[in-house]
Design a protein that fits this description.
7-stranded mixed beta sheet, 7 strands
Length: about 170
């Protein structure tokens, strides 16, 4: 069913693209993708040439202001986004996807909600639209078991930890 929906139901559309310069790795292509069903805009940062058959370094990051900005919930998360950008810049190529959830609460119940699983699908559509196939995930979590990626033409071929250099 996912393969059918991949071919026929595209839930995200790229709205804009521009070049930006960041303190985390210099020049990036910034793309804004809109979720056609809920209206959320997701930010995609692309570094270098991501075409070709070699695996691409990817960070999928679900925005959580309490963890990412305030630093609540334990050490390490507050700097992950910038650290991931620097790791991709050091590699010379890669993609960072910042998924935004319009329905997020400040006190989540925990666990993988249907909304979290839906975001994985949106992220997979975004990566597929970029022409990616084999990816190496930047993550400090154990190797993820994300089902259905094959239907989007994606395969996780490895993981790499995000440095904690700050």
């Amino acid at each position: 069913m996912i393969a059918y929906r991949r071919r026929h139901d595209n839930l995200v559309r790229m709205r804009t693209e521009e070049t930006i310069t960041s303190e985390f790795g210099g020049e990036w292509r910034l793309r804004i993708y809109a979720d056609e069903t809920q209206g959320a805009e997701h930010i995609v940062l692309v570094k270098g040439d991501i075409s070709g058959d070699d695996p691409v370094l990817v960070r999928m990051h679900a925005l959580d202001p309490m963890l990412d900005i305030v630093g609540a919930g334990g050490p390490g998360r507050r700097n992950e986004f910038g650290d991931a950008m620097e790791a991709i810049a050091a590699e010379g190529r890669g993609v960072l996807v910042l998924l935004r959830d319009l329905h997020m609460t400040l006190h989540p119940e925990g666990g993988a909600s249907p909304q979290t699983l839906r975001q994985y699908g949106l992220g997979a559509q975004i990566l597929s639209s970029l022409g990616l196939h084999d990816i190496v995930l930047l993550t400090n979590s154990p190797r993820p078991k994300v089902v259905g990626l094959e239907a989007y033409g994606l395969s996780i071929v490895g993981t790499r930890p995000i440095g904690g250099g700050r």
